[in-house]
Amino acid sequence: MNVAGPATKRAGAGVVLLGVLAVAANLRASLAGYPPLIESVRTDLGIGAGAAGLVQSGAILMMALGSFVGPAVSARTGRERGLGWSVALIAVGSLLRAVPTLPTLVVASLLIGLGIGLAGVQLTGVVKHHLADRAGAVTGGYVVSMMVGATVASAIAVPLAVGLGGWSWSMAVWTVPAVLAFVVWMPIAGRIAEPATAAPRLALPWRDAFARRCACYQAGTSTMFYGWITWLAPYYEGQGWSPQRAGILLAAWSITQIPAALLVPALAERRRRWRFWATTTVTCGIAGTLGAMLLPQPPGVGPWAWAVLMGVGMGAGFPLGLAVIAWRTPDGHASAAVSGLALGVGYVAAGLAPLLMGLLIDVTDGYRAAIAVLVAGGLLQAGAIWRIGDEPRSRVLSSTPDGPASRPGP
């Protein structure tokens, strides 16, 4: 069994977990606070749906860049300190959003996306190295923290804009929790940090079949998540809902993800039935997406059932993808390399999805073609689940100081 290392014992596993949760709360809030304000931003800045989608797509594509370079940054700075400086980038980007111009909004979103991408890779390595004995439960826990941040951000975005006098101040508010997370995490990192020079130079494992399948999985689940987080509220505003009510629907979608993210990875870890749980959750996500596309407001219940189904699918999808990497990689460096590839590819796909959806909305003057993009993402995820399966042992390249080592036997 993997156990906490000496550095973790000096700080205490509980303290490390607390710091991880504080950082994770900032990894979706800045993104979730934007969609309920899209229509206000479009009106104020005079931009179309494509340009509004580009703001979110730019952030997500920078998340991809951060994921790709994250292992190299980890090797240079150490994963623990790198995690702290990543959340500092999120704080700077959030603060820049106080300036209500399109160029500033785009630059701010790029900084936020880069910080989130870097942090995601560092977090995976931190969990694998310091909290590996409960990787599935811890991964679920920090994903829940991310979702809590996203839920609060989407629910209060419009009221904050009204109370603070504009959409830019509403989005800039998320500077505060990012600064607090930096203040909480950096002293912990100072106590548990491993020497940066000890990190092996492990390249992104493009040739590894398991890593490529994880990348396809993350491409599918991230496309569905970021597509809906960007366009769910505007979609129902187009159905006649008020911005505040649409923001509440987005918050309900986020809330549903929390129990799914917390429970499903733990159940999969206990029974080692990853394929079963992953298939069940992606089926929920596809069913909810098709329902929202074909029957947006069922009589009597409205879209809430679709939001619940989508929330279950997307809430469990992301942590299951990270958990299977943690289970099947031999150490923290290999875990960071595989997650860097998987998250990077996933974020590239997810970054293009909001932009493509916005363009399709402009061209077709409707949402059906845009939502079909998300159905395709769910089908890609389902195919990757079948290929990953329930392998009992890691088939990912081990890391050594000189580079990738041979594969473990079957």
UniProtKB/TrEMBL annotation:
It is found in: Cell membrane. InterPro entries: MFS, MFS_Cyanate_Porter, MFS_dom, MFS_trans_sf. Keywords: Membrane, Transmembrane, Transmembrane helix. GO terms for molecular function: transmembrane transporter activity. It is a multi-pass membrane protein. The keyword Membrane applies. Residues 14-395 form the Major facilitator superfamily (MFS) profile domain. One of its GO terms (cellular component) is plasma membrane. This is MFS transporter. It comes from Pseudonocardia sulfidoxydans NBRC 16205.
